[in-house]
Design a protein that fits this description.
mainly alpha; 8 helices; about 0% strand; elongated
């Protein structure tokens, strides 16, 4: 029961606190922290740019897939190594499903994503206690992957999550036979 509450709190924080967290990370100058990987510093730049743009339409967002469209309008990133690519601008994907939801679909989308995840977490409680740990692990894997990679509208990325459900269902049916 305790783990179910922790998962719910974690999910709500991931969905709703990502906007202030992205702004805070940039204000703490983490994009210049030498102890972070270059790709992590780049993500902080992207997250900040996305969060700043989110503040322009915080309730309903800028529209689905607008992250990609606006990044294309900016033109290609500078050529060269990672350091040359670091800039406080949108990327073709937000590198965070939670933040992309805020930017493109606003508070309304973030609340819907939160409720979607909480519905899954509620359903996990109805499963047998033998399979719950595996279900929570699957949920956590998906949630962590969504936190820092790619964009939500890529077909292969959405298929990855669907494939995860199929494999989990297959594993569940095999374990109960």
């Amino acid at each position: 029961m305790f783990s179910a509450r922790l998962f719910a709190i974690g999910w709500v924080c991931a969905c709703l606190a990502v906007l202030p967290a992205a702004l805070l990370a940039y204000r703490l100058d983490l994009q210049n922290a030498s102890w972070l990987q270059t790709s992590a510093r780049h993500r902080i730049e992207i997250w900040n740019a996305t969060a700043e743009k989110t503040l322009q339409a915080p309730i309903f967002g800028a529209g689905a897939r607008s992250t990609y469209v606006e990044a294309q309008e900016q033109g290609p990133p500078p050529m060269g190594g990672w350091e040359n690519r670091l800039r406080n601008s949108l990327s073709s994907h937000a590198h965070s499903i939670y933040l992309q939801t805020w930017y493109e679909l606003g508070l309304v989308g973030a609340v819907l994503l939160t409720l979607f995840g909480l519905t899954f977490l509620s359903a996990i409680k109805s499963l047998s206690s033998a399979i719950q740990p595996h279900t929570y692990a699957t949920f956590a894997s998906v949630a962590v992957l969504a936190a820092s990679s790619y964009g939500m509208w890529q077909i292969w990325f959405m298929a990855l999550f669907g494939f995860c459900v199929v494999l989990f269902s297959l594993g569940r049916s095999i374990s109960t036979t």
